[in-house]
Amino acid sequence: MSLTTATTAEQIRAVHQARHTGRGREVVVTTILLVAILAAFALSLSIGDFAVPIPDVLGALVGRGDTGTHFIIIELRLPRALTAVCVGLALGLAGAVFQALLRNPLASPDMIGVTQGASVGAVLASITFGISGIALSFAALAGAVVTSTLIYALAWQRGVAGYRLILVGIGVAGALSSIVSYLLTSSDVTVSQDALVWLTGSLNGSSLEQFWPLLGALVVLLPLTALASLTLPVLQLGDDTAAGLGVPVERSRRALLGCAVGLTGVAVAAAGPVAFVAFVAGPVARRLLPTKGAALVQAALIGALLMLVADFAAQHLLWSSQFPVGVVTSLIGAPYLLWLLSRANRIGKGG
Amino acid sequence: MTPAIDAPPGEQPATRRQPPARVRTSTGLAGVLGLLVLLVVSITLSLVVGSGHVPLSDVWNGVFSPDRSVEGQLIMRELRIPRTVAGLLAGVALGLAGAVIQGVTRNPLADPGLLGINAGASAAVVFAIGWLGITAANGYIWFGFLGAAVAATLVYGVGSLGREGATPVKLALAGQATSAALIALTTAMLLKDTETYDRYRFWQVGSLTGRDAEVIAQAAPFVGIGVLLALALGPQLNALALGDDVARGLGQKVGLIRVISAVAVVLLTGAATVIAGPIAFVGLVVPHAARMLAGADYRWLLVHCLLLAPSLLLVSDVIGRLIARPGELQVGIVTAAVGAVPFVILVRRRKMAEL
User: Fold this and answer.
1) Rounded Cα–Cα distance for residues B340 and B134 (Å)
2) Is the N or the C terminus of chain B less surrounded, counting Cβ atoms within 10 Å?
3) Which residue spans traverse the membrane (chain A) (predicted)?
4) Per the confidence metrics, is the pTM higher than 0.90?
5) Of B117, B122, B191, which to mutate for an interface test with A (greatest number of A Cβ within 10 Å)?
């Protein structure tokens, strides 16, 4: 039966069916991602220089392991794995929000200056003022917030066009990188090289004391982002359409940008600017769910999975152990990025 | 993707392009003379100003009849003259490279630093020094060129895919993405190698000091070839400014022009990076300033860039020596601070695509 003669009831049924298939796929993808995260989490707790079988891991987690196992699992491996998951969630979500909001698949926080702002904050604090620990995290967060405010203000011209925000961000990122380079020359070489490890993104120093603030920040930021992202599908239709549909465009955009910057800031504060996680998560999620728009939840899960797997690879698979996790995410992310870039440009979506 | 009022250059129909206004010879000559004076002043400042006090008589003698037993003249010979020569060469190279890239991509935001070409050269040099153990300048300079060539090909290739060609956003993102990838690789190579890292970090920041005379001497001929190629491209870039179709109609071989331009850019950027490290924004800002002085005729524009860029670099270097006494700020920091402002202004301009 041709479309023009279809009855309304049949059309409604067709729409329902399309929605149902989409939702079915969404449930499957989300479940697979959750299972994969759980598996990677268990593996990273269990495998290491001193292998702990999974039952013993579970025992240690509920407080019934011997002191040695307890120390290895609870003190060493658990904080690291938990930090990886939370940082991955935050970066994946932030990247997907930026990409959806700026309507450019390449506009993740590490491309447009937000991450560089956090880096300047942290390197300034650690090299120039000798700050470490929680205060360092606050410096990184402050750097991200100040930089994004600056970028937003500089891109403002009776509203903020996505492409202008991207270009201003790239210019600011260039200037900030040279500040980081300068700071790296202004200290002793070992201090500077430690800062370089941090700048690559590393989970080597993770501890439970650093994990709790991260978790606290996520508990606040995740619901806020969920709330703010309610307007995202409409914003993606374009500013004029969104305004016509009654959405306060600039206010919604500011709320979403604020959440995404906050997420980027706390993630960078916890583990350094882990390269490419924020960038890769969104595009992968959208490819898994082509009909789902921004696919924020799945992007966050992919970010977490990527962090766990990359950190596992950095610890156990690379030729030299204890490489920072950022090296692995770069090795995975950079080729994917270039491939994506050429594909996006070929179909005319690169900007 | 982008709102129609801010359409990137590739989306404008070729018929709407205006031919560049002719520059009157007298105006052009006046500009060149003015810039020559500026360049002489900049060179003098770079020779005279510094942390150690050198009497003017020693500055004069140090340049023209050096006597190494006098401390002031030794400072001239060992520090300030090499530094000034490095600034001259790197400045000339970056300014012309920027002008040629902007002309050939018809993209006002093109710059060797922002397009990742510098990052390509520096990644390749670090690889050569750190992993292959090539520490002689005449060895790793080739890696600089190779890295610049690979990065330029990659960025332009990826950025120009698609119907509208190389728009500012696509090129900038491709450049940023390639830089990010290359910087990550460079960092991975440096994490375990404290000695190479210690040398690298003073080079990475973009600085005119600490480079041997040997490195400068190695790079100078390449800058020379690049300059000749770039200056010879003036008429061809004028034709390209009218759009590929018109240029072809005027009898230009567009593909050949792009290849020669790419060779010039790679030689200039690679040599500049080997001399002074990856300095961003000079190649972006200088052509725009020159355009205000000389108009859009590339024959004059390139000569203006040739004179203006080294002045900018040398004056930035002098500023860096003055504002952070008794230490100094490297020239790369100063140019980034000076260059980011015009960059943002360019992005904010309503019709930013006017090339």
Assistant:
1) 35
2) N
3) 27-47, 81-102, 122-155, 161-184, 211-235, 255-281, 293-317, 323-341
4) no
5) B191
